[in-house]
């Protein structure tokens, strides 16, 4: 049997072991990802990415057969810019989790270390997701309220906003529908206990049952300089 030149510095058994261990780690990490994202949802493509990273990294590092070169390659992997940006910044941690597991599989002679590494990191991720560690008690949202032009909006919604939010700020007032309507744009920190339907109904009672939009993103008032 002729072994290709690329494998001359690596034992075939070591290659197969690192590859198999990487696949096992990939499956375990992907299961943790699925478990911690069962409520928020996830894509199959991202699960596949997390699954395949450990064996890919492990086999490359075993072939290199040099700790210094392996660590240099691991650094290159961390600098890769992905064309698809993860929707949740938390997903980036799973990419590094998978890559680190692949590095351990490829360069460590004590393969039990990778299982210890997996158990500790997986336990932390599951714990954080279960107890909601770091979860903010308020949610930053953008509130848009439409009012008729003859309605004085000064202090009109203050009491309602004070009741249902922890903080709020009027960011912009603009006219719509050829000046027949006004649109008020607020940045608010809505309370975790707030009933959003009740909140919107109260605003509709005050604005004459016109449009009220509550958006799950932070409003940024951008100012551009004319060139």
Textual characterization of the structure:
This protein is of the alpha+beta class and 227 residues long. The chain contains 7 helices and 4 strands, in the order αααααβαββαβ. Strands 2-3-1-4 form a 4-stranded antiparallel beta sheet. A hairpin with a 4-residue loop joins β2 and β3. α3 packs antiparallel against α4 (90-107) and α4 (90-107) runs antiparallel to α5 (112-131). The chain is elongated, with a radius of gyration of 27 Å. It starts with 11 loop residues before the first helix and ends in a 12-residue tail after the last strand. Residues 1-8 and 222-227 have low confidence and may be disordered.
Structural class: alpha+beta
Helix percentage = 40-55%
List SSEs in N-to-C order.
HHHHHEHEEHE
The share of residues in extended strands comes to: 15-25%
Please mark out the parts with pLDDT under 50 across 5 or more consecutive residues, or reply none: 1-8, 222-227
Q: Report the span from N to C terminus.
A: 70 Å
Overall 3D form:
elongated
- Give the strand order of the largest sheet, numbering strands 1, 2, ... along the chain: 2-3-1-4
Q: Any idea what the radius of gyration is? A: 27 Å
Count of extended strands: 4
Give a quick account of the main beta sheet: strands, pairing sense, barrel closure: 4 strands, antiparallel
Please give the count of helices. Answer: 7
Mean pLDDT over all positions: 81
């Amino acid at each position: 049997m002729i072994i290709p030149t690329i494998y001359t510095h690596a034992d075939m058994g070591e290659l197969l072991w690192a590859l198999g261990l990487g696949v096992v780690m990939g499956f375990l990490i992907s299961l943790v990802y699925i478990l911690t994202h069962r409520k928020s949802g996830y894509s199959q493509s991202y699960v596949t990415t997390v699954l395949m990273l450990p064996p890919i990294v492990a086999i490359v590092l075993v072939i290199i057969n040099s700790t210094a070169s392996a660590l240099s390659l691991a650094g290159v992997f961390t600098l890769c810019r992905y064309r698809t940006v993860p929707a949740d910044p938390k997903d980036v941690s799973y990419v590094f989790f998978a890559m680190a597991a692949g590095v351990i599989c490829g360069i460590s002679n004590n393969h039990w270390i990778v299982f210890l590494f997996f158990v500790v990191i997986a336990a932390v991720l599951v714990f954080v997701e279960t107890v909601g560690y770091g979860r903010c008690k308020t949610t930053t949202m953008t509130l848009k309220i439409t009012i008729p032009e003859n309605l004085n909006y000064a202090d009109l919604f203050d009491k309602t906003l004070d009741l249902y939010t922890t903080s709020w700020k009027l960011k912009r007032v603009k006219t719509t529908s050829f000046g027949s309507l006004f649109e008020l744009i607020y940045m608010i920190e809505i309370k975790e206990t707030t009933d959003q339907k009740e909140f919107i109904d109260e605003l509709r009672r005050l604005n004459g049952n016109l449009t009220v939009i509550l958006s799950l993103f932070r409003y940024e008032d951008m100012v551009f300089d004319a060139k």
